[in-house]
Amino acid sequence: MEAVVFVGGVSLGQSATSIPIAAIVGLMCGLVCGGIIYAFASRSTLSTFLIVMTNLILLIGAGLFSKAVGYFQVNTFNRLLGVDVDVAGGDGPGS
């Protein structure tokens, strides 16, 4: 999963030579995460491992859900007021 995230993020806006670097970094991050999970699983009991991993997966799911709700809110705002609302231009703070 990490490799897909790294390659997808790079391949959209960069040249083709940067894709192998992103794939290698994604694979390395996946191996490190897998090694950490394996080390934790081998040192803990099964019930502790399952409780911790379930909580981790729930946190990831909650983050994805909150991002989806935010995207729906932005979409509704853009459909009501138009996408040109934020490009009004200005010279003050935040513009």
From TrEMBL:
Entry GO MF terms: ferrous iron transmembrane transporter activity
Cellular compartment(s): Membrane
Pfam families the record matches: FTR1
InterPro entries in UniProt: FTR1/Fip1/EfeU
Signal peptide: none
Topological type in the membrane: Multi-pass membrane protein
Family per similarity comment: Belongs to the oxidase-dependent Fe transporter (OFeT) (TC 9.A.10.1) family.
Name of protein: Uncharacterized protein
